[in-house]
Amino acid sequence: MTALTGTRHLVRLILRRDRVLLPIWVLLLAVLPASYASAYTELYPTAAERAAYLAGTASNPSIVALLGPVFGDSIGALTVQRAGLLVLIAALVSVLMVVRHTRTEEEAGRRELLGATVLGRYAGLTAALLVTYAANVLLGLLIAGGLVAAGLPGAGSLLFGAGVALTGVAFATVGGLAAQLTESAGGARGIGLGVVGLAFVLRLAGDAGGSGGTAGKAEWLSWLSPLGWAPRGRAFAGERWWVLLLPVLFAGVVALVAYPVSVRRDLGAGVLPPRLGPATAGPGLAGPFGLAWRLHRGQLLGWTVGFGLLGLVLGGAADAAGEAVQGNEQIADIMARLGGTSALAEAYLGGTLSLTALAAAGYGIQAALRARAEETAGRAEPLLATAVSRTRWLAAHLVFALLGPAVVLAVAGLTTGLAYGLSVGDVGGELPRLVGAGLAQVPAAWVLAGLAALLVGWLPRLSGGAWAVLAGCLLLGQLGAVLGLDQWALDLSPFTHTPQVLGDNWTATPLALLTALTATLLALALRTFHTRNIPTP
Fold it and tell me: CA–CA separation, 526 vs 110, rounded Å?
């Protein structure tokens, strides 16, 4: 038996478990760059229009900080910048995927059962990395193929696709190392996502000082960030193929640390010693709500801070975005449909808050699924064997599935209003308007949280399907109009029905209906959870 014995069988097991979610996230991310290229080709067909857009919007420091630098005014260069967040998303998904199939398996006890068979020491980590690597390579190839199909040059398309893929590979390896450091899957995810966050902050700080393709004084910070390497490959702007070596070398160095650590620690243990809690529980843990608060507070704080920073960036870019599209009727029409108002800056704000609501729905789904995670980990059954009722236990988690999206969207609206108000000299007027616009997105996010709760109560083995629904809503919002889908298809997303309160004419009826739908879903979730077996495998 070798150290890699059983790797092939574990790869097949991972592919079977992720046979739904894996293709969804790969295909969803793959189609976005091609759609952006087609939109830019239609909206900015001439070099003069692209130069005006570059001068007014793409070079705005806030947009550069959020999306990354742009190195030219070609369709390809603008597309690469617009798709800049795909690099961040690939990194996040890669970290979470590797942790899911390594540390989470150990925490659940399944890794120990597999280890009792003929399984090599490196098989578990290698299988998780191989599947994640392969998914990223497939993503990169699909991105390159889509850009070529959209009419962009093959060299730049391949370079950008490879940059996204190798960034995912680099952070997948980070996830593999993080899984060796702590005893809990939550701790491993926290370390991995913390590295992604640090890389994003470094990239943001380095790029914010530059303008367009002009390097700022702090650009060296971007070179320290693995998230800053792919844009600096300069796809469609004098390709630098050697930049692809940086994520490869980074992944190799991290792997050289992760593999020895994986066999020197005890199964189920981590390198970092666990932090011991107090000898007795505090009064806050006397009930199910106190326990739920203890479990959710870290994630709620992290999401709130992240949304606050995002709001500052989006609000700072709004005024420039409105000015940049005033001379282009096509993009003005699209922005007006997104934001529901004739004021282009407000249309931009309405559209970006709609996208922010999709991310907030992700928090709601995550919070609702935490109840299922507690159940599968075996921690719910001992609690429910006491005087704690099933309804109180599940409702405690669902409170955060509803509270979380409301808090993070309110904070996003607050910081967006603050930044935009400062840019136009009217903080007192813009702040309450944009807080209201953020809160108007909450009922749509609640619907997806309610759907996740219903799956936990009724079909727990399919509860992960809530993420597929979120991906579908994102796909409809981003590509529905581009693909010319009928209105009934667009109406399948609850976010289609959110009124744009930044306009002059809007009604609260859709908000009431979405809230009523959420209440119905939650009632059904509590009812079905009350009658099914605990735990359900």
Answer: 29
Q: In this structure, how many other beta carbons lie within 10 angstroms of the beta carbon of residue 265?
A: 14
User: pLDDT per residue over 289-317, tens digit each?
Assistant: 998 998 898 889 988 988 888 888 778 76
Give residue-wise pLDDT tens across range 135-167.
999 999 999 999 999 999 999 999 999 999 999
Which tokens belong to 187?
């701790």
Backbone angles phi, psi at 175, to 5 degrees: -60, -35
Q: Which of 94-98, 287-291, 403-407, 514-518 comes out lowest in average pLDDT?
A: 287-291
Cis peptide before 288 (omega within 30 of 0): no
Distance of CA 92 to the CA centre of its chain: 7
Task: At 1, list the tokens.
Answer: 């038996």
> Position of tokens 């939650």?
522
In order, the DSSP letters of 84-135 are: THHHHHHHHHHHHHHHHTTHHHHHHTHHHHHHTSS--TTHHHHHHHHHHHHH
Residue 9, SS3?
helix
pTM of the model: 0.79
SS3 211: strand
**How far apart are the C-alpha atoms of 32 and 79, rounded to whole Å?**
10
Helix (H, G, I), strand (E, B) or coil at 214: strand
